[in-house]
Amino acid sequence: RAKAAGKSGYVVFDEAMHVQARQRLQLETDFRLAFERAEFLLHYQPIVELKTGKLVGAEALVRWQHPKRGLLGPNDFLPVAEETGLIIDLDSWVLREACRQLTHWRKAYPALDGLVVNVNVDERQMASKEMVEDVFHLLQTHQLPPSRLRLEVTETVFRSGRKHAEAQLDSLRALGVGLAVDDFGTGYSSLESFAASAFDALKVDQIFVRDLETNPRHRAIVRTIIGFAKDLGLLLTAEGIETEGQRQMLLELGCEYGQGYLFAQALPPDEFEQRL
Ligand code: C2E
Ligand code: MG
Ligand code: MG
Ligand code: MG
Fold it and tell me: Domain EAL: where (predicted)?
């Protein structure tokens, strides 16, 4: 049987591989074109004070309006962006667009004076030489108070060329922008390297929030992260809050801010405005 299936098995496998490779290549071609065609857009997920539900910020999350495949999320195209190095161009665009949008909102809604916009930055972008200068120029151009911008990076930033990354983070902090570790607790940074870094904020990963009420180990981890953040004077935001029970428990544990479907998903700018 193995013999009989073997030959045709290989043919099927080859074909599947071929189709996959072709799709991948198509995605890469489309991705390059997407810049010219202005197909990227940002959705904004509200970040709220857990106690009151008051809006304090928004996380910019990139989307791609693909001409054939519809609206794609980061998981559909970030791998290609990373492999091709185009993530640098994408993140530069995201940063520019988020600053433009924030500036627009600040002008249109004076009550949003304190609103902070969080932007995700790939570790490679974070390490690029132009990063500090780009951020500086954007703040200047838009006359934005630096504290209204917060950059989110995952812990992997500590992994590659640590000294360089640290210098880079210090320079960004010196500009006055906020720096948050995204998905905290899932990466590889030592607490020591983190404690010595310029980060002023942490985001508790949603895997710990998801089963907070049923998993005592995850609850212990969250409690520890909250204590750690408090002692170091860090701003703490919990991600992926979907239920009232999770919100209550996070409040009891002492977490001040959060985001998640319980409050709102990531929204197109016009829908975000309607919620204001
Ligand atoms: P992240 O920065 O940890 O963002 C949170 C993700 O969780 C977002 O997914 C968000 O839509 C989703 N989320 C929010 N609330 C809930 C909830 O209550 N339940 C669940 N199950 N999920 C929730 P999204 O938009 O698909 O983004 C995925 C990841 O892609 C982000 O994770 C971030 O690492 C990356 N990303 C997004 N935008 C950018 C960008 O502009 N540049 C870079 N380099 N990465 C980005
Ligand atoms: Mg994030
Ligand atoms: Mg996250
Ligand atoms: Mg993530």
Answer: 24-276
